[in-house]
Every structure is written in C-alpha cells, then in structure tokens.
Amino acid sequence: MIIHWLSSIDSTNSEALRRLAQLPSGSVLAAYDQTAGRGQRGNSWFTEPGKNLTFSIVLKNLPLKASEGIRLNYLASVALVDFLDAKGVKAHIKWPNDIYVSGKKISGMLIENTLGPDGRVAASVIGIGLNVNQKEFPQLALATSLTLCTGREYALEASLEEFLAVFEGLLPQLSAGELMGRYASRLFRSGVSARYHDLLTDEEYEGVIEGVEDDGRLRIRDLGGGTRLYRFKEVSYLL
Ligand code: BTN
Q: Structural domains in the chain?
C-alpha cells in the first residue's frame, strides 16, 4: 500500500473521492490535520491536529457485489480490533462499525463505495479515524485514545504502517465467510442480556445480541420471545 501524508485537508475521504480516478488501488491518504472530517449520519469527526490517525484507504476492482459491500465493514472493524489487540488493548465493535474500549469510542469509520455498471463495488474509500495520542476530548465524554488506554505515546506514521499491515493481511479473506464470524465474536454486548429500544416499533425490551445476518443486519434475541433484525438506525442501545 502506498501512503500519501497530507499536512492539511478538509477530509481524507472527500480528497480520495476527488482523486479517485488517478489513485491506484491500495493508495492511502492520511492527514496530520483534517479540518472538516466527516462521520456517520452526516456528523462531523473532530480530532486534534497532529495527534490522531485520520486516513482513507482506496480499494478498486473488489470481488464484491453491491449487496456484499458490508464485508468491507467487517474487514476494517476486524483489522482495527486485531491492531488494538496487538497493542494490548481489548476493543469491541459497537454495531455496525464503531470501535469501543471499556465503553468509550476509540475509532470510527466511514466507508463510501462506488458501484460499477455491472452492479459490483468498483471502488471503495474506507475512511478511518483512530484516536492515538489525544488526551482530552472536550466535546465527547465517551471518547478515548490509545494513549489513554496504555499510557504510551505512538508515532503516527509507524502506527499507520502497522495497521495497514494487519488490514492487508486480512484482505484475502474478503470473499470468505470467516471475517463475519470474527466480527460477530467481537460485537459489543454480544451474548449478554441488555436493554434496547426498537425504533421501528418504539418498544423497549431486554435482549441478547446474537450476531449479524449475511446482509449485515443485527440480530437480537428478545428475551420476551422472538428475534429482531435491524438495519442501521433502527435500534438504539440503552444503558
Ligand atoms: C463515525 O464514527 O462517525 C465515522 C468517523 C469517520 C472519520 C474518518 S477520519 C478519516 C476519514 N475522512 C473523513 O472525513 N472521515 C473519515
């Protein structure tokens, strides 16, 4: 993979999308300062300049149909969890793709796919924000960073290279089923009973996260009976 470090950019995802035609597969755009980072649900992604990793990986000609695009989410999530494991930090994936350590978010991702005329994923921009050396999160009570977890400081360039080595190592599994199993096994609250708010029916109930369906829907067993399946934004986790 070829890393291009940018001193400052609005958003590495936006820049990767603007330069998509010129960037070969395996290109990575990383920014020391991201001035208008984009998050899920149209939110912004704020990070202190020079402290954290904000980068986008460009992949092209993937062996994926549009409906299989969810596997990129499994790939990036499992890669982050494996990378953090190697640092001695036990992380979990809050469905669909937030990475949490001890109830606090350490990483988030924004994956933007372009479909080809054959309905396959022609290109994917996998944008990842990983909190590394930031110690204070004034706007976010529930955020953490690698340094807050381990007490150490990390070189951003070396950390990105280490992460990309893990990511690349998992790439051949993109078409296999194993990634989904590994993703499901590291889901936050997996197998334990907790309370959920079903936003489709406006009900609160006690349930157990069992895993994900092939299409990426979250499966929760309702302890009152039955199984509930959710797409993004259809369920919220209650404390
Ligand atoms: C989220 O949790 O809401 C997703 C955050 C994704 C942030 C990353 S930082 C690098 C890339 N560029 C962006 O503008 N967003 C992603």
A: 2-185 (3.30.930.10), 193-238 (2.30.30)
